[in-house]
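Intended use. Records like the one below are meant for learning the mapping from a protein sequence to its folded structure. Do not use them to infer anything beyond what is encoded.
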Amino acid sequence: MDILKLKAPCKDYLWGGNRLREEYGKVSDSDKIAESWELSCHKDGESVIDGGAYDGKTLKEYLAENKAALGSACDRFEYFPILIKLIDAKDNLSVQVHPDNEYAMRVEGEYGKTEMWYIVDCNEGAQLIYGFKDKVSREEFERRIKDNTLLEITNNVPVHKGDVFYIEAGTLHAIGSGILIAEIQQNSNTTYRVYDYGRVGADGKPRQLHIDKAVDVTATEPPKYDTKPKGERTAIEGGACTLLASCEYFNVNKYEVSGTVKLTASEKSFNSVLVLDGEGTINGVKAAKGESFFVPAGYGEYTISGNITAIVTDII
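Structure written out for the chain above:
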């Protein structure tokens, strides 16, 4: 059983920039890289194993042959539970919302999407949309979408490096320009777009809105969660650890390594390690900024060494 280095599929959405190429080593034939899908078994873009005995296979193919590598905590899910991305928003993303599991399975045939954002970097003065300023009725929500006054009632939040946004399914949201985030989410690509700044797609036509579905699923109230990590930064041997977010779908810790940190992938869950900054090794294998690794469940103890900031995700 080996730790697997992963190669990320990239997306060239119109709002993206090129920081993921220039600073994080992502490779794409497209002019821009809006997203890199760092841990993915989704049909719209699958992680590919880079090196070792499974070189060139998708992570999904590997897991089909090694089901125990998921861990027992994943038995409650119908398919691979999470999707992890790096997102470079050079321009504003559309204002959007994701459905919960019940609605998404009934209407779209896949999971809904609860997600979290960790602000990796941002321009001074950058903002994002996180729910509403005040509670509104569904009727007002729909009216304001249609008369282009939605932004008058959204909750616009200034962001800073290290902020954490827990975005429960049904929460209206939008990443603003000049923000680079790590996103950990349910394994779903279902998004209902409600406002898009009048932009057009590659075909020259306005991008599709999903007003009726959005009105069905949106919680028309202010967000319930703070925009800070769930836990305090705690000193550990070899560095520091901060619990960023934890829920039934994912458990996310940030490790700031300045030496050697020992971690464990138990039989309960795989570990996903995404390097956000610095360089070093994972169990002796070179690891650098922008690289992603899959540690199979049951692997046992492993080490992260060097000067590295990494997000480690598992299922609890």
